[in-house]
Structures are given as structure tokens and as C-alpha cells.
Amino acid sequence: MIPIEPLSRNPLAGEEAEQTSSAPAPQHRAMAAFDICGFSSSADPHVMRLMRDSMYQVVKEASATAQMPWNNCEHEDRGDGLFLLAPPGCSAYSLVDPLVPLIRAGLAQVNRALPPSRQLRLRMAVHHGELVRDEHGVISPALNMLFRLLNAPILKARFEHGDLALIVSKDVYERVVTWGMGLIDQKDFQPFVVENKPLPVNSEEDSFFMAWAMLPPQPAPAPAPTFHSVDPEILSRLKRLADALDELLYVSNRHPGLTAQSTETED
Predict the structure, then answer these.
(1) Rounded mean pLDDT of 160-184?
(2) What share of residues in the chain are helix, strand, coil (percent, to 5)?
(3) What pTM did the predictor assign?
(4) Nearest by Cα to 212 from 188, 182, 181
């Protein structure tokens, strides 16, 4: 089993080295999560390590190019994926554009050197919200939402082909994507209805929530079965045969003795 590393964290500007007894104040942060598609289907530890190393290479290089150096981010290894907190002051916009196009380009470059059976495919989720810290890391309803987006069954089902699938929360879509700036086009997104996890009876959360996803082009669905035309003469003969059977059944029901006599005569 791959060990889970604790959330790596650099001290924020002005942060005290010693923890105080007062509860920490919530902090608004932009966040992203990544998952390697098909990671658990491989039993080869060398393949698993190659996939993880490739994911880290792509995300690290893309973050640096997007002016979010890796050492300024907070990150947590998830075995088959990665959790990333953007540096304080970076909005969710930075995690969508230019980070997403850079990750897409990095995946294309990495996959050119990999055989088809080992292509790296990632799901990526982006959200933002308030979070607080404890002695183990960070906690937040927004963090829960982020991973519900990442693991949405509809996203897994629709993402059959391509390198990168992006899903964002409704709030990120409305605040970032719809601006239509940069390299991200609103027309490339489609709405998804994501089912929330099973909720307690008295829960105030909704059972479903809206999200928006950007998928690479997917294979066309299988064509519907076609029915070849039948020779009209054959159809006519089949109709006459069906009519004759109907008439025979009618007679046998109305005059059962007649059919019995007919059978005895034949004997």
C-alpha cells in the first residue's frame, strides 16, 4: 500500500510559530484534486510508480509555469491522486486558466513517450471555499465537495477517452468559466447533475447538486441497429399464412367437434 503523506505546508507570512489555544480563523483558499484513471487496475508496482511520477511531473511543471511554484502550494499525496491548495491570494481562476491548459499540454507530452497501455489519464476537480486547520491538516465542507466532484460517477462514466477531464463546482463555473477569458471556453463545458453521498434524514444538504465538466472529444456512441427491408412478396405470403392460422384457430374455438372429426377422418 502506498503511504499517505501528511499535508506539506509552508508557513504563511506573519504566522506565529507556536500554536495558540484559540480556534484558528477560517481561510478562503482555492483547491484542486487529481485522480489517476485506471490506477487500481494495474498490479505492477513499477507501472504504478511510473503513473504517479508522471502525474507529479505534469502538475509541478504546470504549477510553476502558472506562477504557482510547487513550494508555495500545499499538497497532499492521495496514493492514486493528489490534493492541491493554491497559495494564499490565488483565486480559483488560477487553477482553471492557465493551469488546466498547461496540464493538458503536459499530459500530451508525457503520453507521447508512453505505450498505449500506460497512457496517463487524469480527472481534475476545482473548487474554492473556507477551510480551517487542525493538528492533522485542513478540514472544510468545501473540501468534501471537491472530492465529491472528483469522484462523481457521472464523470467517470462519461470520461472514456482522452487525457484530462475537468469538473468544477457551480460557483467556480459562474465566477470563473463564464467570464470567457483566457484559453478556457465556456462552450466546452456541459452541465452534470452530481448525486450527493447518502445523507441523514434530517440533513439540510441537497441530495443532488450541479457541476460543470469539460471533457475531451469522446467516441461516438454505437449506431442503433438497422433493419433491412424485406421483399414485399415474402411479406405478402407471411400475411396470408398468418390470416390462415387465425381462421383455423377461429374455427377450432367455435366448432371443436369439427376439428376432432377432421382428425379422425385423417386417421
Answers:
(1) 92
(2) 40, 20, 35
(3) 0.73
(4) 188
* Rounded distance between C-alpha atoms, residue 92 and residue 116, angstroms: 33
Instruction: Please state the length of the chain.
Output: 267
Q: Give me the pLDDT at residue 219, please.
A: 73
Q: Which helix (H) or strand (E) holds 120?
A: none
Is pLDDT of 3 > 50? Answer: no
The residues, ordered by sequence, that sit 6+ positions from 132 with a Cβ below 8 Å of its Cβ are 23, 24, 25, 26, 27, 138, 139, 140
Spelled out in words, what is the top-level CATH class assigned to the domain 27-214?
A: alpha beta
Residue 30 β-bridge partners: 128
How far apart (Å, rounded) are the C-alpha atoms in residues 186 and 178? 6
**Residue 17: predicted pLDDT:** 45
Report the alpha-carbon distance of residue 147 to residue 36 in Å, rounded.
14
Q: Provide the CB-side half-sphere exposure for 86 (13 A, CA).
A: 25
What DSSP state is assigned to residue 255? -
Distance of alpha carbon 161 from alpha carbon 150, whole angstroms = 17
Cα radius of gyration (the chain): 30
Among candidate residues 204, 85, 93, 83, the one with its CA nearest the CA of residue 150: 83
Least confident residue range of 2-6, 72-76, 98-102: 2-6
Domain ranges of the chain: 27-214, 232-266
> From the CB of residue 167, how many other CB atoms can be counted at a distance below 10 Å?
30
Question: Do the beta carbons of residue 131 and residue 88 sit within 8 Å?
Answer: no
What CA–CA distance (Å, rounded) separates 94 from 200?
A: 35
C-alpha atoms less than 13 angstroms from C-alpha of 251 in its C-beta half-sphere:
11
Q: How far apart are CA 52 and CA 48, in angstroms?
A: 6
